[in-house]
Amino acid sequence: MTAGHDGAGVEPAAGTTGDSPRRVASRAAIYTAGSAAPAVASLVVIPLITRLLSQREYDVVALGTVVVQVGVILVALGMGAAITREYILGEAGARGARGLVVQSSLISVLVAGLALALGPLWGPAVLGRPWDAALALAVVASLGGGVVIVVQAYLRGAERPVPFVLLAAGGTLVGPAVGLVVVLLGQRTGTAYLAALAAGYVLSALAGVAVTLRSGPRDTSWVGLRRALRLGAPTVPHQIAIYVAIAGLVVVADRLLDAGGTANIVLTLGAGATVLTGALNNAWAPLIYKEPPATRHARLTSTTRVILRVVGALVAAVCLAAPLLVKIASPPTYDHEAMVPAVVLASFSAVASVYYLASSHLILVRGRTGVLSVSTPAAVGLGIVAAVLAAPVWGLVAVGASYAVMYLLLALFTTVAQAVLVDRPWRPPLAPVTLAVVVACAAAAVLLPTATGWWTVLRAAVALLAAAVLLAPLRTALRR
Fold first, then answer.
1. CA atoms in the 13 A half-sphere facing the CB of 461
2. DSSP-assigned states of every residue in 197-249
3. How many whole angstroms separate alpha carbon 271 and alpha carbon 444?
4. How many other C-beta atoms are found inside a 10 Å radius of the C-beta of residue 162?
5. What's the pTM value of the predicted model, to 2 decimals?
6. DSSP 3-state percent helix, strand, coil across the chain (nearest 5)
7. For residues 254 and 89, what is the distance between their CA atoms, to the nearest angstrom?
8. N or C: which end of the chain has fewer CB within 10 A?
9. Average pLDDT over residues 31-48
């Protein structure tokens, strides 16, 4: 039996992957919709919660959110990548992946419990504020989110996108929605909102574990757990560095330009297209893992070209819509003229992220994830240094450009790493048409006037033309 079934995890022979392009595309569409929904929801929740809570109470929510975002990475210990790989390529296959979900969940409980017990020590030292119920609830939410991550890794390997998306909705949609209701009913505190957020994550985690336990027998072995930890733990610095990328640039903008809030808006909008690459990766990674070694490089090349076109179309749209996006995201008191080119430059990170993800697939197949614990922090660190040097001269433009530089360096480092680590190096495909269209749209976005009316119509027409050029050939490519 092939990996992913209740037998030994053996790579499938050629022609047995069973993944038609239409089927892969449909799964990718579900993952994309599930990833886009929380992003859209956050755009709705943030303006509401900032108006319902005082600035002091919203500061509590913002700090709690930071704890959750970092906490889910720490409590999950990078086991997500190891579980998906175990399902498809591991010796124990689906049994081993289910066993790792159970073991990882127990480890997450222990890590979160330790964080709660030591909270009065690390809370003031790290966050600069006393340990209180709000921070404790943020740790509980982190626990739920970490368990959801490992369950989703199992569902990704099992090719079950619908429960994958439903679990994500529990924490990122249901929790904030209930929190808004609680605040509207009179509990105008950040602690009340975080309590609802924690409840959403914990309920999603319990539902996910139940789904895993009902999916079939489990193989829990210390050998498998140690192997998974060796694979997953090195990705923790990598994941934290990805998160710190935006946070670090916001700090630079705040210290050097007194524009931390403006930079946060710019980077949130510019990084929006990377949400699509992450969503597509949920269908892309298992496809590459399952491909036989003899044809894996060819499949990786063909899928990289397709994903570059899809992401390129979105980047082109973000560039041309940048004037409208910054007006929606911020009041007229912000410097919209300076924000537009910064958003445009930051959006190029999505194109670079496709190359980074493509090479990282081969690194994960090889099981040599230690390189990611070095390459990603190095790329982020160099990007922050570039921002520090350039921001005094170029302002917000330097901040947006530095974010793109981080992903360009990450793509470069990861590509070099896979060339060294794998038996047969993979050559990333050039995409001259995609790059030319994206660059042309970026230039048009900066050069065209930002006035409304017919100029907005012209920008929309250019975006549609770019989408037609990039997406029209995909029907034939997917057939192939």
1. 7
2. HHHHHHHHHHHHHHHHHTT------HHHHHHHHHHHTTHHHHHHHHHHHHHHH
3. 19
4. 11
5. 0.77
6. 80, 0, 15
7. 46
8. C
9. 66
Please enumerate in sequence order all residues whose Cβ is within 8 A of that of 304, keeping only pairs 6 or more positions apart, or say none: 354, 355, 358, 428, 429
95's tokens: 């049994």
Measured from the Cβ of residue 40, the count of other Cβ atoms closer than 10 Å reads 11
Question: Two tokens at 324?
Answer: 């409208």
Average the pLDDT over 68-87 and give the result: 87
Angle in degrees, CA 117, 119, 120, rounded to 5: 105
Q: What is the pLDDT of residues 207-216, one digit of tens each?
A: 999 999 998 8
478: burial class by Cβ within 10 Å (0-12, 13-18, 19+)? middle
What contacts 284, CB < 8 A, 6 or more positions away?
28, 303, 307, 357, 361
Neighbour-count burial of 397, counting CB atoms closer than 10 A to its CB (0-12 exposed, 13-18 middle, 19+ buried): buried
Average pLDDT, the chain: 83
- Tell me how far apart the alpha carbons of residues 383 and 249 are, in angstroms, rounded to a whole number: 9
Q: Which amino acid is at 259?
A: A
Give the C-alpha separation, 128 to 132, whole Å.
12
Among 194, 322, 196, 331, CA closest to 266 = 322
Beta carbons of 84 and 155 less than 8 angstroms apart:
no
| Per-residue pLDDT tens digits for 254-283 | 888 887 778 888 888 888 888 778 878 878
Q: Is-contact 159 286, C-beta < 8 A?
A: yes
pLDDT digits (tens, 9 = 90+) for 308-358: 998 999 999 998 888 888 888 777 878 888 888 999 999 999 999 999 999
- With a pLDDT cut of 90, the percent of the chain lying above it is 31
Distance CA 294, CA 284 (A): 18
Question: How many C-beta neighbours within 10 Å does residue 42 have?
Answer: 15
**CB of 71 closer than 8 Å to CB of 199:** no
Q: What is the predicted pLDDT for the residue at 2? A: 34
Q: Which span out of 41-45, 291-295, 350-354 was modeled with the highest average pLDDT?
A: 350-354
pLDDT at 105 > cutoff 90: yes
Asked if 198 and 140 touch (Cβ cutoff 8 Å), the reply is: yes
